[in-house]
Design goal:
Elements (H helix, E strand, L loop, with lengths): L2 H17 L1 H18 L8 H29 L2 H7 L4 H27 L7 H24 L6 H13 L1 H4 L3 H5 L1 H7 L3 H10 L4 H27 L1
Helix pairs in contact: 1-5, 2-3, 2-5, 3-5, 3-6, 3-7, 6-11, 6-12, 11-12
């Protein structure tokens, strides 16, 4: 691992981030949602709203930013130069994830200060949240490498937000309440497993989130190897 190469990738991404208004707007969405939820009376029970905000942050900011940045690298053919540079796979992945991680931590921190962070303070929850965050990072890398153009990223980002970020909301929809197959499937999604950690004392949800994480790493690695082969 070469820290100078990682720093160079981070600096480039930082400059690109400041120039990309869509990424700046996306980063503001979870803060706006947290501000909105903080004005709603949940009868003292804010846990559900906290996990909605966490899901929006991870799907929109973490995965969404990675998708946009990776797709932009492909469209501008700068990904080819990055792959052909002396930087290793680890250098590139850490360098590309660094800025998104910093932005996610800042956005999530501000959002949780507005809405409350008590449900996330338990040890198992901290571990599960970190694993879920890394899952969204690699999911974004894989999807960004899969996207053909920057414009097409919206086709992928919106479903990821709906399926992975807003999953806790599905628990209140009649279709999922009355459909046992659908409700069983969504029970295994990462954000629902974070809710399981909050409601139980089991470590099984962390194992399930770990499986999602491994799958996302394999997905990103396969797409990265394909990008290397194509070049």
């Amino acid at each position: 691992m070469n820290t100078q190469r990682i720093a160079a990738i981070f600096e480039k991404d930082y400059k690109d981030f400041l120039k990309n208004s869509s990424l700046l707007v996306t980063a503001a969405i979870p803060i706006f949602m947290a501000l909105l939820y903080s004005q709603i009376d949940f009868g003292g029970e804010m846990t559900f709203a906290v996990f909605i905000v966490v899901g929006i942050t991870f799907s929109a900011v973490t995965a969404g930013s990675m998708i946009t940045m990776m797709a932009e690298e492909k469209e501008k053919n700068t990904l080819r130069g990055l792959i052909q540079s002396p930087a290793s796979f680890i250098d590139i992945i850490i360098g590309k994830c660094l800025l998104t991680s910093v932005v996610t931590i800042i956005v999530l921190g501000i959002s949780l200060l507005l809405i409350g962070f008590e449900p996330l303070l338990e040890t198992r929850m901290i571990i599960g949240t970190i694993l879920a965050f890394i899952f969204f990072l690699f999911l974004g890398i894989g999807v960004g490498l899969f996207a053909k153009t920057l414009a097409s990223t919206y086709v992928y980002t919106t479903p990821i937000m709906l399926v992975f970020g807003f999953t806790p909301m599905f628990l209140a929809i009649d279709f999922f309440i009355n459909n046992k197959v659908a409700s069983t499937i969504i029970e295994y999604f990462p954000m629902i497993q974070l809710l399981e950690i909050d409601e139980t004392s089991s470590w099984a949800p962390i194992g399930i989130i770990g499986i999602w994480l491994v799958a996302s790493i394999i997905f990103a690695f396969v797409l990265f190897k394909k990008a290397v082969k194509d070049d």
